[in-house]
Automatic annotation (TrEMBL):
Keyword Nucleotide-binding: no
UniProt keyword annotations, A-Z: Disulfide bond, Glycoprotein, Repeat, Secreted, Signal
Segments traversing the membrane: none
Localization, UniProt: Secreted
UniProt cross-references to PANTHER family, sorted A to Z: FETUIN, FETUIN-B
Record-level GO cellular component terms: extracellular space
PROSITE patterns xrefs: CYSTATIN_FETUIN_B, FETUIN_1
Domain Cystatin fetuin-B-type residues, every copy: 24-137, 148-259
Designated name of the protein: Cystatin fetuin-B-type domain-containing protein
Domain of life: Eukaryota
Length: 404
């Protein structure tokens, strides 16, 4: 009798093991390619392009280095890459739709830095690069690190202060007077601001502008009274301006430079960066998009979900900001998160697979998306080399835990 019971338990265990080889294989088949591998570099490049394309606020993020990568080869061909990227922001606004490699990095003292986790599926034979999800946490370089290397450099300030809005309005007035646009533009919001004492207070601002219904053929005393054009018609712009008040000459020096983005141009640029492109085949500035009708995997690729949080400047001696969703003081792309939103944003930690949507009539052929792996890359080449050395940023970057 005891022998019979033992045999039954043995058969059940064997059947259980044999019935779930895909799940068992999926959990153990994570590879640790080198951080300088060509396929990994390409995956990081594509992931960052698609993160920047997905965002509607903030600045384009640039790759500083690849911190960690895990690869999960798929039975349907292709691989899912689980990337941790050290990133810095650039001088390009996301509305410009520029590629991150074409954007100028900020000076060390003005850097906003952090990490992004990204899950991207790449299938070269079928010309697919699909960003499943991402989450980024950024923060400005702590002021004491800036003052140590550049005591007189301006430090980023709160852009919502009235003095910076006033500086934006004053510099925009110069643009409205000199530009060839047919309508006046008004300030939408100030995105970045700093102040420095030169020959008097000098204000430096970056801000978005919107086209108004007021024609430049008319004399307008107060442009703030002009109504914005509808979102379908209005052009949006991004400006950098400065207002320097000279106490010596009792005068004011104003500078302004703006880029104007029409909806048509923006859509065209975004079309060049579609996910269903041919990895490794498209040029940096011109990428071919493949519509879903000719891509058999598109019905099984979920919509990209992700977020970018910006933490306030830290006064502590810290390393790179922690990718934690519990930080109550975080901002999402520069805007404060409401209490109910914190902790409820999409997470990479919950297991998601395309097989969850399977039915009897439509077999699933999409990639298997696992929980973001807790274990970092096992490769000694990770973290990879920095794309550009930054003496202020270098000591703040996270370090890979040493092996016991």
């Amino acid at each position: 009798m005891v022998l019979l019971v033992s045999m039954l338990f043995g058969i059940q265990a064997l059947c259980s093991w044999a019935a779930s080889p895909p799940a068992r294989e999926a959990l153990t088949a994570l590879l640790s390619p080198t951080c300088n591998d060509t396929a990994v570099e390409e995956a990081a490049d594509l992931a960052l392009r698609l993160i920047n394309t997905d965002r509607k606020e903030g600045y384009i993020l640039s790759l500083y280095r690849i911190f960690s990568v895990r690869e999960h080869p798929q039975e349907i061909t292709g691989s899912v890459f689980y990337l941790i990227l050290d990133v810095v922001d650039t001088e390009c606004h996301v509305l410009s739709k520029k590629l991150w490699k074409n954007c100028k990095a900020r000076l060390a003292q003005g850097t906003v830095y952090g990490q992004c986790k990204a899950i991207i599926y790449i299938n070269q034979p079928r010309n697919i690069a699909h960003l499943n999800s991402y989450e980024c946490i950024l923060q400005p370089v702590p002021p004491r690190y800036i003052h140590k290397g550049c005591p007189d450099c301006p430090v980023d300030d709160c852009p919502t202060e009235p003095r910076y809005l006033e500086a934006a309005v004053q510099s925009l007035a110069k643009f409205n007077e000199e530009s060839q646009q047919t309508h006046y533009f008004s300030v939408l919001n100030v995105t970045r601001a700093s102040m420095q004492w030169v020959v008097g207070p000098a204000y430096f601002v970056e801000f978005l502008i919107q086209e108004t219904s007021c024609s430049k053929n008319d004399t307008i005393a107060d442009i703030s009274k002009c109504k914005p054009l509808s979102s379908e018609l209005a052009q949006i712009g991004f400006c950098k301006g400065s207002v320097v008040n000279s106490h010596l000459e009792h005068t004011r020096f104003v500078t302004i430079s703006c880029e104007i983005y029409s909806l048509q141009d923006s859509a065209t640029e975004e079309g060049k960066q579609q996910a269903n492109q041919a990895p490794g085949k498209a040029s940096q500035n011109q990428q071919q998009a493949f519509p879903s009708e000719i891509n058999p995997f598109s019905p099984h690729l979920e919509k990209t979900v992700g977020w970018v949080k910006i933490l306030p400047p830290s006064t502590e001696d810290i390393s790179s900001p922690n990718l934690s969703k519990e930080n109550q003081n975080a901002n999402k792309d520069g805007k404060p998160l409401p209490p109910e939103a914190v902790g409820s944003t999409p997470s990479l930690d919950g297991e998601k697979t395309q097989a969850d949507k399977a039915d009897l009539t439509k077999p699933v052929t999409g990639p298997v998306i696992l929980s973001f792996p807790e274990e970092l890359s096992l490769s000694d080449s990770c973290p990879g080399e920095a794309k550009e050395k930054n003496s202020i940023l270098q000591p703040l970057l996270p370090k890979k835990p040493t092996k016991a």
